[in-house]
């Protein structure tokens, strides 16, 4: 999963401009048993938390809410979500983004936005079965300004602080960010 040699990257990548779809091959892929190892490796590199076997088993069951993103056929990021029943409601559910990340050399190319846009688009579709999704939420380390800015620019709001959310880490604090989805009732 190393980045392509500099000779294979055009000046758009080198200058960290926004991704131009005609300049690169970018694609989203389903998470399958055949590429689950790639997702595990990505998450090990991207996040300071170790995810369990049951986490990855569940990821295989969420369909459009778990994706891997490829840049010039290289696996460089991914997103994993889970649906949860909205407290006090039988007609809606929440979508929790457990992980969303892109390897550092590929950031600021629009890849994280592409992953998040995919999740938000599918969260707003009318469900074929079960309740609709009323909000999307996640937790971000309190000191991770880059991630906080990323989500806030996309309409997420900090709604709660958890001072000891990551007790196994040096920086334990997290913020809960959420985006309420507006949809037809």
Automatic annotation (TrEMBL):
Protein name listed in UniProt: N-alpha-acetyltransferase 50
Lineage: Eukaryota, Fungi, Fungi incertae sedis, Mucoromycota, Mortierellomycotina
Biological process (GO), any one: mitotic sister chromatid cohesion
GO MF, any single term: acyltransferase activity, transferring groups other than amino-acyl groups
Record-linked InterPro entries: Acyl_CoA_acyltransferase, GNAT_dom, N-term/lysine_N-AcTrnsfr
Superkingdom of origin organism: Eukaryota
GO cellular component terms, semicolon-separated: NatA complex
PANTHER family referenced in this protein's UniProt entry, alphabetically: N-ALPHA-ACETYLTRANSFERASE, N-ALPHA-ACETYLTRANSFERASE 50
Domain N-acetyltransferase, residue spans: 26-182
Gene3D superfamilies named among the record's database cross-references: 3.40.630.30
Keyword entries, A-Z: Acyltransferase, Transferase
Xref: SUPFAM superfamilies: Acyl-CoA N-acyltransferases (Nat)
């Amino acid at each position: 999963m190393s980045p392509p040699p500099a000779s294979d990257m055009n000046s758009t990548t080198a200058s960290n401009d926004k991704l131009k779809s005609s300049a690169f091959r970018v694609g989203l892929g389903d998470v399958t048993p055949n590429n689950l190892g790639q997702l595990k490796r990505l998450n090990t590199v991207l996040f300071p938390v170790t995810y369990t076997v049951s986490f990855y088993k569940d990821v295989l069951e969420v369909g459009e809410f778990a994706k891997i993103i490829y840049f010039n056929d290289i696996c460089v990021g991914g997103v994993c979500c889970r649906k949860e029943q909205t407290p006090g409601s039988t007609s809606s559910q929440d979508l929790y983004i457990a992980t969303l990340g892109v390897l550092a050399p590929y950031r600021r190319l629009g890849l994280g936005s592409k992953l998040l846009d995919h999740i938000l688009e599918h969260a707003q579709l009318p469900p074929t079965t079960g309740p609709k999704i009323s909000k999307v939420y996640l937790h971000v380390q309190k000191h991770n300004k880059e991630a906080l800015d990323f989500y806030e620019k996309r309409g997420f709001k900090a709604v709660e602080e958890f001072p000891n959310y990551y007790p196994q880490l040096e920086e334990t604090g997290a913020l809960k960010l959420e985006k309420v989805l507006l949809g037809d009732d």
